[in-house]
Amino acid sequence: MDICLCRRTPDTVKTYFERASTPEIRKFLPQKAKSLEEALCDYEKTLLPGASSYGKTIYANGKYIGDIWCYCIDKNDVPNAMISYCIFDEKFRSKGAATKALRLFLDEIRKEFGFTSVGAFTFAENTASIKVLEKNGFAFTEEFEESGILSKYYEYSFSR
Asked: How far is the C-alpha of 10 from the C-alpha of 40, rounded, in Å?
């Protein structure tokens, strides 16, 4: 499977917002934006100098299948940013697409931002996401409960 990362556009933001709003995805990935207008506004902020988030679209074999991004960017903090990703096209889940996309994204943000570390949260029951993180060298750091939901925190060091 050929995986590549491409730039986000207002059209991909709209597609992502619609496709990632399903109950199946929201079960594992709560969405910050409550409306398309809010999602587009958040996207516009990523284009500004000094933005605190940065994202890409994920394409598999030429088809748009999801997004990957980092947020809370702060090179003076540890970790330097948090990572999140979503494969909204169910045909590409559990096929290695997210694992490959994350590997590409880690290389890109290291070059683009000079990060030394990034973190990632996932719900403890999201075994697919845990596998993606671990296959990419993220180390489990802690488990915690928030609002009755058990979550796990992972960190990745670029010095590996």
From this structure: 7
Other C-beta atoms within 10 Å of 23: how many? 6
Residue 142 near residue 149 (C-beta atoms within 8 A): no
- Kindly report the pTM of this predicted structure: 0.92
Domain ranges of the chain: 3-114
Q: Encode pLDDT of 51-71 as tens digits.
A: 999 999 999 999 999 999 999
* Amino acid, res. 109: I
Amino acid occupying residue 114: G
Domain 3-114 in this protein, CATH class: alpha beta
Gap between the Cα atoms of 146 and 148, Å rounded: 5
User: Which pair of structure tokens corresponds to residue 67?
Assistant: 């997004």
